[in-house]
Here is the input.
Amino acid sequence: MTNTNDALPGRPISFWLDTTPRTKFPPLPDNVSVDVAVVGGGLAGLTAATLLKEAGQTVAVLEMGHIAQGVTGYTTAKITSLHTLIYDYLIRHFGEEKARAYADANQAAIEQIAALVTRRNIACDFTRTEAYTYAEIEDDVNPLEAEVKAAARLGLPAALTYETPLPFPVAAAVRFDGQARFHPRKYLLALAQDLPGEGSHIFEGTRVLDIVEDEPCRITTDKGTVTARDVVIASHFPFGDKALYAARLSPHRSYVVGVRLDGPVPPGMFISSGESPHTIRSHPWEAGELVMVGGEGHKTGQGGDTVARYQRLEAWARERFPVRSVEYRWSTQDNRTIDRVPYVGRANPTTKHLYVATGFGGWGMTGSTVAGMLLRDRILSRENPWADLYDPNRLTLEGVPQFVKENVNIATHFIGDRLARGESPDLAPGEGAVVETEQGKTAMYRAEDGTTVHTFSPVCTHMGCIVDWNPAEKSWDCPCHGSRFAADGKLIHGPAVKDLEPKSS
Ligand code: FES
Here is the structure.
């Protein structure tokens, strides 16, 4: 029987969303023409739009819901080039030149954010701090030593340390100096405020249905049409899939609890190395400092009892910190690429005007900012030394084993899920399940009032996998490419573009 989330502590809302106002940009009124259309109003889309507008382009940001409220609203918002352990891997698999490009790009992203904060005087709690990747056991120390060596060789501000500000012992840690943290929504809402005007726009509540590349490109939405010379797809998962992104991206969810401590809050940002990493950082709030502890990651739609994941995360935090209370809880989703480097650039090998930014693998603050800078340069035909490394159409052998593994996993959910789960459970209020009815497999949700029952086809409207009920978030999550639907079947985010199909029970 699925666990219920009624007993979970903390308010089920992201701290970032809870401490900033909602946005109210208008929907697309009719037809609009701009230089560049940007699909998706998260950090990648808004950064690209901001930098393009600064460079004299007119832009239109098209957002299905509200800007800075999708994946960006649920991040832990670490602005760092310390991506757990990656530089030793990059040197071994991509060579030193490309590893240096990755290091330079992510360090430049930190400085780009700092420059925008200063130039526009943005009050977003931007603070320089150290970032650490730590190991709790001796067996995990060797990879840290290799990482420090690799990072230092690439010119990064790296050092090996055996002490951290954490209140529990570590075996060793990689420390990067001069990194930063901020409030991502305060930052983005300030950027967004400056975007509309002089031929540029933000349109919320505008769902993109189709993109045709031409001269100019035509973007069909549920409100009207946008024509643009170039299009940036920054909607988390690329829209339209001529380059097989569905086979090259792996969506993952992870969980965060925001806790108040009895005692001092450790300065810095932390992530553990090893198979199941935990992440820690703090942020100022009305009651002092909120400590965010994240972890319990899993592939989307394959998390099993997600309520238990919050419970394990809380227990992990209580074992290591003097937790007085749990104030918040939320979860987030990241796409990983098969070779660990994001896809930023032309969407497919033949396109001239269609660009993507995706696959930030949990490092979206710097990754999205790199994407914004790189896409500005690509669109304006400027040289950029990071372009080859990030090219979505790169041919590398590095990701082949992961590619095979991912697609075996996806195939299992096309075939296996259609044959699984036959019984019809007695659903409690607020619970959902895929059940067998006379009409065949049905996604069924009993609303909190106990009487209203919503029923849908459980077939994901992207490519036909069977969705899975997520009890902690009360959503239908697709185990193949990570589309998510609310309990009432409405699309939360793609790659699907349509709601689940209603069905009579
Ligand atoms: Fe691709 Fe569901 S997200 S089939």
Notes: Residues 166 and 491 are 40 Å apart (CA to CA).
